[in-house]
Specification:
Blueprint (H helix, E strand, L loop, with lengths): L1 H31 L10 E3 L8 E4 L4 E5 L13 H8 L4 E6 L5 H4 L2 H7 L5 E3 L6 H14 L5 E3 L5 E4 L2 E7 L8 H7 L3 E6 L11 E5 L5 H14 L6 E3 L10 H7 L3 E4 L12 H10 L4 E4 H4 L2 E2 L1
Parallel strand pairs: 3-4, 4-5, 5-6, 10-11, 11-12, 12-13
Antiparallel strand pairs: 1-2, 1-14, 2-3, 7-8, 8-9, 9-10
């Protein structure tokens, strides 16, 4: 009996060490896939300067493109969406999703469509700002006239290759401030990627893309993730380039292992907010934060 209690006490003493070691294994695996030393990436965060563009892999040389970043003004060092596609050897776009019509998410569409035509295009319902919504439509008519174009619907989902996507919210959220309405009406898309067998997870890798949702948009997303029991995800695109308007309750539920921030070095908005970085690290001290102003394009 005495030996039994000694073993129990020894096990309890070792638990923190075992947990710490297990976490270190998990995060070192994640870090390995951030180095770019493997072909088995599943998400690429493209450096488009102050904007967003992500590649979500669907096959060996195919992907979903989620936003395309701003037009190249020639003033800032960046990859841009076209160079990003080449960098990660993507020659087939199975689906193009545009989260909302701000130019830092749709501005480089013409550059993309000049070199590749997506199989399908999914657009937001809320067609504001009207100038960019109209310009986007004109570019699609010019370069991708035969491509099926539809408006996203909340709850729609599809499996493309080894990736499933689900639109968590597509409903416009209108407020007094026009920019808030546009940002909060961003499409939020949940991806589950069944990665190649030798990649760092055996279960589907989860990635949540959030556009520029702010207070109201994040409140709606919080309701949805609770309803769908989405929690402890792998990769989270921090809303609105890491601005200070982050919902702490939402972040605690999602508890991502890796946070991605699309942001331009020296941007006038001072993105990402120091407050947001501190919040992420307080919720998960082991979180890996990858931001394009410091890390450039990176693949996970």
């Amino acid at each position: 009996m005495k030996n039994y209690f000694i073993k129990i006490i020894a096990l309890i003493t070792m638990l923190p060490i075992i947990l710490s070691y297990s976490l270190s294994i998990l995060y070192s695996h994640a870090a390995q896939y951030l180095t770019g030393n493997t072909d088995n990436w599943v998400i690429a965060n493209c450096d488009v300067w102050q904007g967003d563009s992500f590649l979500i892999r669907t096959g060996e040389n195919s992907a979903i493109v989620n936003d395309v970043g701003p037009e190249d003004d020639g003033k800032h060092k960046r990859d841009g969406i076209v160079k990003c596609l080449k960098k990660y050897h993507i020659n087939q776009i199975d689906l193009l999703i545009l989260s909302h019509y701000h130019d830092d998410h749709v501005g480089d569409l013409e550059s993309l469509l000049k070199v590749q035509t997506p199989a399908k295009i999914l657009l937001p319902i809320y067609e504001e700002p009207a100038m960019w919504a109209s310009k986007t439509a004109a570019i699609i008519r010019k370069y991708a006239a035969s491509t099926p174009v539809t408006s996203a619907i909340t709850g729609q989902n599809e499996i493309i290759g080894f990736t499933k996507f689900t639109i968590l919210n597509a409903n416009p959220l209108i407020s007094i401030d026009d920019d808030d309405s546009i940002n909060d009406s961003s499409l939020t898309v949940y991806y589950e990627i069944n990665a190649p067998s030798d990649s760092f997870e055996s279960k589907p890798i989860s990635f949540l893309a959030t556009g520029d949702i702010e207070i109201r948009g994040q409140q709606e997303l919080l309701k949805t993730v609770k309803q769908l029991n989405i929690k402890n995800i792998d990769i989270y695109k921090i809303p609105h380039h890491g601005s200070s308007t982050q919902n702490a309750t939402l972040l605690k539920i999602l508890n991502p292992k890796i946070a991605l921030i699309g942001v331009g070095e020296g941007n006038s908005y001072k993105h990402p907010s120091d407050k947001t970085i501190a919040l992420l690290e307080s919720i998960n001290p082991a979180i890996i934060i990858k931001r394009t102003d410091q890390d450039g394009s990176c693949a996970i």
